[in-house]
Amino acid sequence: MSNALKLSDALTKDELKSLREKSDLKALASFLWTWGLIAGAFAMAIVWTNPLTILLGIIILGGRQLALGVMNHDCAHHAFFKSPKVDEFVGHYLCGAPMNTSLHAYRAYHLKHHKYAGTPDDPDIGFVKNYPVSKESLRRKFVRDLTGRTGFRDTMRKIRNFRLSKNWPWLTFHVLLLGTLTLAGAPWAYLMWWAAELTVYPAIVRLRQIGEHGTAKDRSNLEPRLNTGTTVAPFWQRVFIAPNDVNYHLEHHMFASIPPYNLGRLHRILASRGYYDGYDCISHGYVDVIRRAVRPDAPQMVAAE
């Protein structure tokens, strides 16, 4: 698109400098919001124990498990707290450990995604390369997720690869979680974490992946507006599906150094100046993401799934 607005014409250097400024207060608020919701999900189910509160708690936990992964991701970019050392500690031990994610290993993997996004060398391309798919294909994927088949596969992989010298933070988290819930008189609530990780979490991760690159119009193109998408999501979806501004993925690919809590402001600036005009790269909520992920005439891809 030869007439497309250039990024340098849509954003001033002073605005970019301001957007790159990190805030310990905003980072801490995001961190406490996530852990507060985790504690609240358990507390709700324990204090008002019934199938509805337990189910709602599991759904909240699934979204917050993704939030922990998102904060681990932001810390890996050194784009969360002002101090890189704080990012390293918080990202690895307080966000990565519950999901058995090493910040250092994740950083090496993830930077390749940024460098080769959409190309055959992109380590994440396998998650989205077949989209859009048929409605039946997408349904099967989410059924596998929500029935625990995807989560069980991933958990067994974690167990097979477990090494105490490397994975002790993950083990420590689970010991502390079980111990805390036992002291609260509800050791049964520990199973809520696993129920969320085995069922809800994989489905949310899949939906996030589709929104980020599965709806892209030309994943092989180096232009971010063609190989990456952003989802403008209402508040309730950001609580359950798109935590910590992860929905502004296009903006993140433009400037990985901008902290997540500033990505919404970046999106609004660029949108107001017509930077996205002519590009179909913005989804409006995750129902729209699912709509974009489906191609009615798409062939069934049983073997490739």
Helix content: 55-70%
Give the strand order, joined by hyphens, for the main sheet.
1-2
Mean pLDDT: 93
**Terminal Cα span:** 33 Å
Instruction: Estimate the strand proportion.
Output: under 5%
Sheet with the most strands, sense and barrel status: 2 strands, parallel
Number of strands: 2
Number of helices: 16
> How many structural domains can be distinguished in the coordinates?
1
- The best one-word shape is globular
Query: Ranges with pLDDT <50 over ≥5 residues?
Result: 300-305
Radius of gyration: 20 Å
Question: Helices and strands, in N-to-C order?
Answer: HHHHHHHHHHHHEHHHEH
Derived from helix and strand composition plus strand pairing, the structural class reads mainly alpha
Nutshell version of this structure?
The chain is mainly α.
Q: Which properties best describe this structure?
A:
single chain; 305 residues; mainly alpha; two-stranded parallel sheet; 2 strands; 64% helix; globular; disordered C terminus
Question: Could you explain the architecture of this structure?
Answer:
The protein is mainly alpha-helical. It has one domain. Helix content is 64%, strand content 2%. It has 16 helices and 2 strands. The longest helix has 26 residues. The C terminus is likely disordered.
